[in-house]
Amino acid sequence: MINDNGVARVTQPAKAFNSRESLILLLLKMRTFIALFLIVGFFAITVPDFLAVGSMVIMIKHIAINAFLALGITFVIITAGIDLSIGATLGLCGMVAGWLITKGIVLPMFGIAIFPSIWVVVPVVLLIGALIGAGNGWIITRYNVAPFICTLGTMYILRGAAMLTSGGETFPGLAGNPQLGNTGFDAIGSGTLLGLPYAIWMMIVLALVIGYIATRLPFGRQVYAIGDNEKAAELSGVRVKQVKILVYTLSGFCAAIAGIVVSSQLVASHPANGSSFEMNAIAAVVLGGTSLAGGRGTIIGTLIGAFVIGFLADGLIMMGVSEFWQMVIKGIVIIVAVIIDQMQNRMQQKAAVVAQKAVIQQGEASR
Questions:
Q1: Model confidence over 133-145: pLDDT tens digits?
Q2: What residues contact 92, with CB distance under 8 A and at least 6 apart?
Q3: Could you state, in order of their start, the residue ranges of all structural domains in the chain?
Q4: What is the number of alpha carbons within 13 Å of residue 79 lying toward its C-beta?
Q5: pLDDT in tens, 152-204
Q6: 3-state class of 297 per DSSP?
Q7: Which residues cross the membrane (predicted)?
Q8: Does the pLDDT at position 14 exceed 60?
Q9: What is the spatial distance between Cα 197 and Cα 114, in angstroms, rounded to a whole number?
Q10: In whole angstroms, what is the distance from residue 235 CA to residue 219 CA?
Q11: HSE of 308 in the Cβ direction (CA atoms, 13 Å)?
Q12: What is the pLDDT of residues 204-254, one digit of tens each?
């Protein structure tokens, strides 16, 4: 409508949304920061030395493991996919590292075993993780298999393969043998730089790299386009299948990083390493604002979500809360995060409809 000065004014529907619901929508978008603030504040009051420098470094070192997985799976979820195999990938990659360090590469025809150095072990393990992810992406895109079903099957395959590498036993003593020239693996988990563990620096670097890809490179925009509307993205020239394969490849690669760090910190590999880690990663991503429906999410949100999950878990342990109750609380957090995500989706859709109606009404009024 036109006011007395001849200027089109905002229609009542748009005003109604702005006055009553824009604040709620803003709070929903800021939920991760609010949750982090409340959790840190609560444990700072109830747990002695929770904010002590030593305690924070140890907790962030733990958080880094979940952050590796969560950062890798963020792109997958933005494309409206899911990867349930990342925990099993972590476990298998750790077992491969343990095999190479303790058993070496046996060459029966020559009667010898080659023990590769750390500079060979790490790239090989990362390559295996990436290939596992690429395999998931290829099956999903080539045969149009639902990501949930494909990665669930892969999870069982990888768990079985991890068990087969050692008969279900642990590979201990991953520090290596100086006489074999394969020492240094344990330094990845125990080493520090400027007073911070390597794992924390690796988390920061990985977050910066993936954040740059998401915001600055065409690949990142294509990922969001696929999640928003896959058919429209394909019609606009996006190579949907190739992008999806790369997205799952990145997820497997990040899971391999986590597998290396976990095995290095423990100085041992066990086939059950990483069990249920995928749930914590998914919780961190969803809590960080990434929509399970695809098309929306940020790397910084995922990182903060990982901190929320990590501080919550470690805080409960420091309070002496039973492990069973910890599982209950984590489950509640996941459900609440999904509910809030759905609320945000509905409110954003409503806001878009209201804004569109306002533009149409203003156009009609100006005629």
A1: 999 999 999 999 9
A2: 128, 132, 158, 159, 161, 162, 165, 259, 271
A3: 63-300
A4: 34
A5: 999 999 999 999 988 888 999 899 888 888 889 999 998 999 989 999 999 99
A6: coil
A7: 33-60, 67-100, 106-133, 145-167, 187-214, 245-268, 274-292, 299-318, 324-340
A8: no
A9: 30
A10: 16
A11: 30
A12: 999 999 999 999 999 999 999 999 999 999 999 999 999 999 999 999 999
- Asked whether the beta carbons of 125 and 97 are under 8 A apart, the reply is yes
How large is the average pLDDT for residues 308-325?
A: 88
* DSSP states along 58-76: HHHHHHHHHHHHHHHHHHH
Burial class (CB in 10 A: 0-12, 13-18, 19+), 4: exposed
Token reading at 28: 């929903």
Judge whether residue 24 has pLDDT over 90.
no
DSSP string, 225-283: HHHH-HHHHHHTT--HHHHHHHHHHHHHHHHHHHHHHHHHHHTEE-TTTTTTHHHHHHH
Name residues whose C-beta falls within 8 Å of residue 149's C-beta, 6 or more positions apart in sequence. none
Is residue 94 left, alpha or beta, with left meaning phi > 0 and alpha meaning psi from -120 to 50?
Answer: alpha
Q: In this predicted model, what pLDDT tens digit does every residue of 87-134 receive, in sequence order? A: 999 999 999 999 999 998 888 877 788 889 999 999 999 999 999 999
Closest to 287 (Cα-Cα) out of 269, 272, 301: 301
CA distance to 61, 241, 277, 329, per residue, from 67 (Å): 10, 26, 11, 20
List of residues 6+ apart from 265 with CB closer than 8 A: 189, 190, 199
The first and second tokens of residue 24, run together, are: 């709620």
Where are any strands of DSSP class E within the chain? 105-107, 112-114, 171-172, 192-193, 196-197, 268-269
